[in-house]
Amino acid sequence: MPNMTGEELNELQVPHSVMAEQSVLGSILIDPRCVSAVVEVLRPDDFYMRQNQALYQAVFTMFNQFKKIDPVTVIDQMKVDGVYDENTTVPYLRQLMEVTPTAANVLDYAAIVADKARLRRVGEAFGELAGMVRTESGTADQILEAAEQRIYAIRQGKTQGMSHISAVMGNVWNTVKELQAQGGQFPGISTGLIDLDRRISGLSNSDLIILAARPGVGKSSLAMNIGVEAAKHSGKSVAVFSLEMSKEQLGMRLVSTECLMDNKKLSTGRIVGEEEWARVAMAVASLSQAKMYIDDDASLSVADINAKCRRVDDLGLVIIDYLQLMTSAGGPPKNNENRQQIVSDMSRSLKLMAKELNVPVICLSQLSRANESRGASQRRPMLSDLRDSGAIEQDADIVLFLYRDSYYDEDSDSPNLAECIVAKNRHGETGTVQLEWRPEFTTFRNLSQYADEDEY
Description:
The chain is an alpha/beta fold. It has helices at 6-13, 18-30, 35-39, 50-64, 71-81, 89-99, 106-135, 140-155, 165-181, 194-200, 219-233, 247-259, 263-267, 273-288, 302-310, 339-357, 391-395, 405-408, and strands at 208-213, 237-242, 292-295, 315-321, 361-366, 398-403, 417-425, 431-438, 443-446.
């Protein structure tokens, strides 16, 4: 066996396929129409060979800038990028076109390149984790969390690198086109409440939505109403983490809401007649088909929730009931760490989780008693009433408060009227949405079931 340089030996050990990379690039040069299919599969850093990566980066940039792609324009772009070599670039492009028989199999070539790239990233991740273990850079739980984050990112095709603004603009353009094709409807998952959807544009991916109220106002009920709506109609899975109620208690509430039967009657088993039993049976059957997963572990941390969510297929929404019951994201509290700092860390971790999973996260939160010390006309919650930390307000994309006048006044003229106060909204205006509250069914409904859906 001939002597080999260290660089050559290293390349033998790193997963890559020179032939597949060249075949992808040759296919693009032969038939630029295949570029749109390739860019959905590959990013520039998926190519291992440096010259192949530079060439594909030029093509990728041109595609996102809607430029015409052919061998001549690609050479011009490489000159702009500063990667053009007078002695090697043109001969290499000619070689790529000659060795590629057809562009018909370009997606097969691209799949090989993508697979080798993922193998390299797995190797890099395990190398870093092995280093963390050797140097004991953290506890076992922290290293396991880092491992899960890396593997999840690789599985989802996410990279940690920076993106050129041309790639960002390409994504923005595609998003606007998709929204236009949908008839200008809001992009997020529907809450099932028309006026609330219009106010917050639905539940958008990567958003942290804080839903806060005093105990007993109905925040758990509203969250579960939204969760069932999403599980039934969004086509996505919903993960519910109930740190306060057991799975069975939650299930009982859901059945009550679904079949519109008094929750007290249902929970005491006072069901009479075949008609009532039929309603319960239909509700149980309908809810059993929903794509909803419930966890009632009362000792969960944000890291635990994050790890469990990664294992849910086709995840679309996460609901956590509620923030102040979670354990610290960083493990047991330190002696000099107060509750405010712990909640701040958890809220920040929740926002990072929403961004990483790319789904909306609804987290329920308690309010302080501050609003109850104010006069009757000033009891509606404010952002300063969020319990334990102002960081919740900072990290949240949307903050919703629930308020019912009947909660404070049993003789209220509007016992079934509830207000959902949008106190913070990164996607639009704040304001108040009125809802109908039906306590016997633990459900919120649109104030008018016949609201004109086209009127804004």
